[in-house]
Amino acid sequence: MAMYTNRVVRCSKTNPFFTVLSRNFGNNSSARKWYQHPTVRYICLVSGGLLAFTAATYRNRPKVYALQLRKDEIADKAIKLTARERRFIKFASVEFDGQIYMTPQDFLESVVEQEPRPRLKRKSLTHAEIQQLKDYTPPLKHGSSQLFRSLRDKGIISYTEYLFLLSVLTKPHSGFRIAFNMFDTDGNQRVDKDEFLVIRQLLGGSLKDRDLDEATRQAMEKIFSFAWKGKRGIESKEGEEPGEHDDYVDDEQGLQRKHKVDTTLQIHFFGKKGDKDLQYDGFYNFMKNLQTEVLELEFCEFSKGHERISEVDFAKILLRYTYLDTDEYDNYLDRLLDREAKEKGVSFDEFRQFCQFLNNLDDFSIAMRMYTLADQPISKDEFSRAVKICTGSELNSHLIDTVFAIFDEDGDGLLSYKEFIAIMKDRVHRGFK
């Protein structure tokens, strides 16, 4: 009996239920006698033991962190993709027939924002919605530097077109004619819809074949294209039955099949029926307008409706896509603050002119190597002369003073152009090495 009593006491200490039960029975003599019966105590003991065992087992069960595992799996898969592929997947907000697309707004956000807008999932477009998008797309003659902002989510951009648009942003104006001539395969100074597909060959250099495991290959086929197998040399087996996707033509690029849908760019360039030709003037204006539209977005982010931005804001825009650590980044801004005696500001035209110069960095680098020979630092006059040679126009003297205030490390009035070029290349390519 004493043994049962001691076990019940121990059980009551570990289980609040038995504490309450004992307290209630203690106030009633008849109930106390019933409670003291060995059988009752034995039942209570067994019940308490089972409860204690169950609680201990639950506490010691291995925990499964499903969300964390999912993040790790996604990160593991992401390592096997290029930076551009990851960014396209990250910002693409719509899909159609298993293929993911960006909207015009997605594209703009992908080049000026770090993260996409919050969303639960991608919107799945219907055939009817795809057809409606044609009505929203203006013809090329009505294009402007507001095109992508006015379309917002009323359009679709494929992955290969995304690569094309990124390349447009880094092209100097002198390279527009070269790009057009590459599209114009028959040399008649017109590009038709079929010739436009040469874009895939132009972008081939940025899509190196990579060694991929089977899981990654399957994921890429699902996300981008059923043509991935053909691109990677994994052709259909002989005698294999035609699948439901045999009407998709290999695009020779691997990341984007020739989908049975006209994208916004195709409609904009070649009309709803695809029977119009693209001429150089229209092509030039499109590329120029796209560059202007992206620069306007960046400028307006800092101008807050004013006509000019501060020199510090100008420096922040130049450094925002670079791979500087926090201390280095702060040093550049601190130098500017210490050396800039009076704030004059930078207008949009000055900002755009400087960004157009940055698209000529390769020519600038060649000019500097030939001029200095020994990679010596350059003065403001030498910098200004080299810019004029490369772009055909002169930079504002205040803008050059601001650039030297940012990048002249020791304040001797000379610029280490090699370091300047290395940092500005990150800016031009927006973080894509």
Automatic annotation (TrEMBL):
- SMART domains to which the protein is assigned, alphabetical: EFh
Name used for this protein in its record: EF-hand domain-containing protein
Where in or outside the cell is it found? Mitochondrion inner membrane; Mitochondrion intermembrane space
Q: List the InterPro entries.
A: EF-hand-dom_pair, EF_Hand_1_Ca_BS, EF_hand_dom, MICU1/2/3
Gene Ontology CC: mitochondrial intermembrane space; uniplex complex
Tell me the GO BP annotations in alphabetical order.
calcium import into the mitochondrion; mitochondrial calcium ion homeostasis
Main localization (coarse) = mitochondrion
UniProt-listed CDD domains: EFh_MICU (cd15900)
